[in-house]
Amino acid sequence: MTVNDAVAKRVAALLAEKGMSQYRLEQKSGIQHGSMACIMKGRNKTVTLSTVIMLAHGFDMTLQEFLDDDIFKSQDLEVE
């Protein structure tokens, strides 16, 4: 699994957990709809740290809270 895949899965899980729409997350985080669609559909191969920080802020959480998930601790996570 790539880092982008892990971020997309984490975003999807948090959206479901918080009952939030992707549109609302885009508004709160400042991430453009096209960029979010690329992340969620796996077309973006290089999610930047600044994008992850924006996602965390959109969920009203710290970067550490966003990354504190088993999906980012997996030995199978491909880091390029």
Written description of the protein model:
The structure is a single chain. The chain has about 80 residues and is mainly alpha-helical. Helices cover about 60% and strands about 0% of the residues. It contains five helices and no strands. Helix 2 crosses helix 4. It is globular.
Helical content stands at 55-70%
Strand count, sense and closure of the main sheet?
none
Dominant shape:
globular
By secondary-structure content and strand pairing, the structural class works out as: mainly alpha
Element layout with pairings:
Elements lengths: L2 H16 L3 H8 L3 H8 L8 H10 L4 H5 L13
Helix pairs in contact: 2-4
Features:
80 residues, mainly alpha
Describe this structure in a few short sentences.
This protein has 80 residues and is mainly alpha-helical.
